[in-house]
Amino acid sequence: MKIAIAQFNASVGDITGNANKIIALANQAKQQGSSLIITPELGLCGYPPEDLLFRQDFIIANQKTLNRIAQSTTGITILVGHPHYENKQLFNAASVLQNGKIIATYHKQILPNYSVFDEDRYFEADNQSLILELEGIKFGIMICADGWEPEPARKAKEAGAEFLLSLNASPYHMDKLETRYEVLINRVKETGLPLIYANLVGGQDELVFDGASFVLDAQGNVTHQLPSFVEALDYVEITNKQPVATSIIPALSLQAMVYNALKLGLADYVNKNGFPSVVLGLSGGIDSALTLAIAVDALGADRVKVLMMSSQYTANMSVDDAIAMAELVGVDYSLIPIKSLFEAFKGALSEEFKGKPEDTAEENLQARIRGMLLMALSNKFGSIVLTTGNKSETAVGYSTLYGDMAGGFALLKDVPKTLVYQLANYRNSLSTVIPERIITRPPSAELRDDQTDQDSLPPYEILDAIMQAYVEDDLSHADIIKLGYREADVKRVTRLIDINEYKRRQAPIGVRITQRGFGKDRRYPITCKLNFN
Asked: How many CB atoms lie within 10 A of CB 455?
């Protein structure tokens, strides 16, 4: 028999549009001779639907549309993920559609309630297996987290399963595919059953689903690997109750995976929310350069506008490099010097600031003037402003509220500074779009004379390592110092991370690419006096 894997991009809430995709994919798979098509977890409503699940009309619409899918397709069995209300309980479910009817429904057994997941808030867990018998093969059905624990797969085998089918909405972070392989290979080896893993693809707010669906034979060998970050409909031939191996798509490099995740996350956020275009400030620095490169790749140059807003502290080479890059990628750009605006603001505040030396207040004025100009263009033309700060800056508060933090989408919010450089070099390895001097010159906010980032921060290699240990690994000061970092650097960086939670709460969302982004992953109190040994 032939089984189709439908790795498609679902939009949360667009039940009608998602259903139409499922119907079209099912008809295409039927034409190719497939007996069964598998779709992703909650593919009918999109993932994660969050508090939409509390709305009765939303649940009713899912059920009605599921019936419509069943009635609209014949000659192929469809496995559809959807929310299911039964006996005053809501389940994360997968239904089997066959011959115009819903013939069976499976309820997810393991509900994740960690990291970005909070399924316990919405769903009830079940403990029953579902076996689908088709063309002489008994298939055990699982949904995503069911595969991360041994029990659901074991119970499916005890119920007679000869093959496992897993519907998934597994978001991307770095090295996630390798982790999935490790976990699901364990399930295969424990049960001796082959497995098909069908995953969602697409951006949803800060999450990006990478697709990368795959198939394992009973020995745990990968027999099929679908591409990452694109929609795909692929087919699995089953002979003697085992998948027949086919060619495997080579794995992408880490930098390619992250770049594609950022590109897809941005494209879907902009397109699904109906923004016609984006606008950003291009400074001649590495962060705005990488943001521009990704924006052009994601949306096309005709949908990207940049402003170059130089001050008296902006080096000529910064303006030259910004213009050179804008022309390389073919975007519309404007030069709006802010010196006169800056002087006007200082003049208006002269009495208030009388007798005080210039400090971060004047530096932040420049950032806020730039933010105001970008937001003015956003209001006038409907464009969304992309902020350009990276995770390292976001962590330690090296950013200005209502200034360079002003905008609708923080593309690099979860990208450490050291990775920013790697991604810039990766993009240039495809074709040169970022002038080399932008990559090689020391980073600077250019808010005062002769300023560099390292005037205020440790070198980024050290900052990023301490940040990862503290934010992603939850290590203590003492444990981080044992890794070989200076006590002064550790205390400085961790203190900055602690006291800047209030800024991060006010920052726009951005694409999550690490295991611990500044969003749903890490929920720290703003008012918090850490005082313990």
From this structure: 10
Identify which of 103, 102, 90 has the alpha carbon closest to the alpha carbon of residue 45. 90
Quick check: 113 and 128 in contact, CB under 8 A? Answer: no
- Which positions ≥6 away from 388 have C-beta within 8 Å? 280, 281, 283, 285, 287, 288, 291, 404, 411, 412
Helix (H, G, I), strand (E, B) or coil at 237: strand
Contacts of 92 (CB under 8 A, 6+ apart): 41, 42, 81, 83, 84, 107, 108, 111, 119, 122, 123, 143
Provide the b/e sequence for 11-37 (b: ≥16 CB within 10 Å).
Answer: bbbebeebbebbeebbbebbeeebbbb
Local structure of residue 171 (DSSP, 8 states): B
Token pair, residue 429, equals 């390895």
Those residues with Cβ within 8 angstroms of residue 178's Cβ, 6 or more apart along the chain or in another chain? none
- Record the pTM: 0.94
Per the CB < 8 A criterion, the answer to whether 385 and 279 are in contact is: yes
Question: Are the C-beta atoms of 415 and 390 separated by less than 8 Å?
Answer: yes
Beta-strand relationship, 201-204 and 207-210: antiparallel
CB-based contacts of 372: which residues, under 8 Å, 6+ apart?
Answer: 406
pLDDT in tens, 191-224: 999 999 999 999 999 999 999 999 999 999 999 9
How many of the other CB atoms lie within 10 Å of CB of 478?
Answer: 10
Burial 117-156 (b: 16+ CB within 10 A, else e): bebeebbbbbeebbbbebeebbbbbbbbbbbbeeebbbbb
pLDDT recorded at residue 521: 84
Report, as residue numbers or ranges, the catalytic residues: 41, 108, 144
User: Which burial class, exposed, middle or buried, applies to 482 when counting CB atoms under 10 A from its CB (0-12, 13-18, 19+)?
Assistant: exposed
End-to-end CA distance of the chain: give it in Å, rounded: 62
Residue-level pLDDT at 437: 94
Q: In angstroms, rounded to a whole number, what is the distance separating the alpha carbons of residues 304 and 295?
A: 7
- CA angle centred on 532, ends 529 and 533, rounded to 5°: 150
Tens of pLDDT, residues 473-497: 999 999 999 999 999 999 999 999 9
CB atoms within 10 A of CB 279: 27
